[in-house]
Amino acid sequence: MIAVLGMVLLAFGAGTVSARMITITGIVNDENQIVVNEDNVYTIGETEKGEELVEYVDRKVQVTGNVEEQDGEKVIFVTSYKVLEE
User: Fold this and answer.
1) What is the CATH number of the domain that holds 33?
2) What pLDDT, in 10s, does the model give residues 33-80?
3) Do the domain assignments include residue 57?
4) Number of domains in the chain
5) How many CB atoms lie within 10 A of CB 35?
């Protein structure tokens, strides 16, 4: 019985990645992404703050939000941000 319950939980949990809150600093590009460096690029998820953030193309920003992996890409759902001086 316990083994069956464990298999059911694994089946429903497969493929889901829990979000984690992080803060990153990078440059907003014209593809709705934040580029931290060539190995760390985050797609800006659809949130109210994310929609504001995409207006700052080519600007350096500090962003806090929940990160999830979707289709092999890191997506950040922005909860707050600030535009940094160059």
Assistant:
1) 2.40.50.140
2) 999 999 999 999 999 999 999 999 999 999 999 999 999 999 999 999
3) yes
4) 1
5) 15
